Task: structure prediction
Amino acid sequence: MTAPTPALATSGLSKSFGALGVARSIDFALPAGARHALIGPNGAGKTSFINLLTGALAPDAGRISLSGTDITEMPTHRRVKLGLVRTFQITSLFPDFTPLESLTMTICEREGVAGRMLRGFRRLSHLADEAHALLAGIGLADSAHAITRTLPYGRQRLLEIGVALAARPRVLLLDEPAAGVPEKESGALLEAIAALPDDIAVMFIEHDMDLVFRFARSITVLVAGQVLCEGTPAQIAEDARVREVYLGAHFDG
Amino acid sequence: MESIAPGAGFERRSRLRAGEVLLWLAIAAAPLYVPGHLVLASQILITALFALSLDLLLGYGGMISLGHAAYFGTGAYTAGLLAQHGWSEPISGLVAAMLVAAALGFAASFVIVRLSGVALLMVTLGLGLLLFELANALADITGGSDGLQGVEIAPLLGLFGFDMVGRTGFVYAYLVALGAFALVRRIVHSPFGLSLQGYRENPARMAQIGAPMAARLRLVNTISAGLAGLAGGLLAQTTQFVGLDALGFERSAEVVIILILGGGGRLYGGLVGALVFMIGRDVLSEANPEYWYFWLGLILVLVVLFMPQGILGGGAALLVRLRGRAALGEAAR
Ligand SMILES: Nc1ncnc2c1ncn2[C@@H]1O[C@H](COP(=O)(O)OP(=O)(O)OP(=O)(O)O)[C@@H](O)[C@H]1O
Ligand SMILES: [Mg+2]
Result:
């Protein structure tokens, strides 16, 4: 019996900065439709793992495959075209753009018209309309024409996710999506992420264990660049090694 | 707000504004109100075109160039040398100037698109110095510091000679500049232009939205170089002379100053900057030639301190304040 091809998988993925191993032979598989949390203490290598997956960092060893296609050597922008999309832990937006512009630009890219030089937007207004609909869907409709850098940080976090969604991901990697979002909104944010269509595999990094246990259907614990353990939330909550790593810091609840 | 399609606010920006039409009409009418200054008017247009070429790169793409005169001078010498060797038909000479400069820009772009920050400054600066010294060393061909002599341009379309009053030169420069502005306007309002501005706003993020930027940046560098060459070719043809200063560092520095003065990334910043700069120089250096750089320095410091977005940016911000917050999204850009 062959297991279904995972949406995203790595084998033996390794990367060091000098003596510091941020990824140490990581074997990882994200099944189609996953709602997967990647957790671990600060400096464990979670962001570095996303950087490796998206091609922002080149691995020292190991392979990465997307729906069975080896993408280890593929440039970042081509991985995005195949549906591998990320967001950033520290908001990385287009400060002088409006949210509408940011999303329209991303949609143009996705639709393969972003290289068109002599075409105006009048004939591409359906793309701007789609951008607007997407903004409305994430609660940013009233900020559509505001300048991004003037938006409150919580809204910028939403836009960060909106830009990723505009690329129409098949695998969505979210680096601490709720960080900086007001606490009363972070639940709704993750609810929206969990409610994304089932054919999108989602992996999110999150430090807030309440959110992790509410929204993840599976969890990987990364410590010092190595996978400590993986399993369902119940299994992870039971795991003595995990408790030891966290020393109760996040687990008192 | 108004009852428009949800995404429409987006394309509204690219619509031709009445102010733009008026601006170009006002320039076209220059022979009526400054008939004695048509040579200066042509030079302003040429400088505006040169600044426009930099605007595409710096104002829209966020890529600095401290050696843009390399392309300007290449265009100037191409047009000048062609005419000197008997190819005196202006339009084909100008096209050649543009193409040769664009080819240089294309070649340089393979190095340039890998760079940013100080490295980009140094390489573009180096390119400018290199071409300057090359032209200086090849004095047999370029005339060295004496400049290129014996440039004679045939009448435009075989009808309109380039006279001393500069009327033909003005109309010629006007039409070329108008065409170039229309082209760049089209480009910056296209999806391509949007991604170029995205690169300016956040270069690192572009790959993560799936944008293959290297190829686009090469293309932009090539177009920018071609437009700079066009400006250089125009100068050579309208003045029927090319000096080494066409390639000089001063010209590279001035065009950066002009663009920043006028306001980059707003299409007309180069034109406004060129107007202020060249008329300012004309007026101030007539009074005290040796103090021109003093005044220029002062103006530059004041503009950067009080209008960091240049004259156009400062003007737009003022408009927003006058109109109130309602207009914020539109006019602030
Ligand atoms: N480009 C780099 N060069 C050198 N060291 C780096 C680089 N990027 C990350 N590191 C180091 O690698 C380690 C892992 O960093 P990473 O950002 O992946 O951790 P993280 O698990 O995301 O942490 P956090 O929860 O704080 O976001 C850290 O010690 C960090 O300082
Ligand atoms: Mg991190």
Q: What stands out?
A: Chain B is about 70% helix and 0% strand.
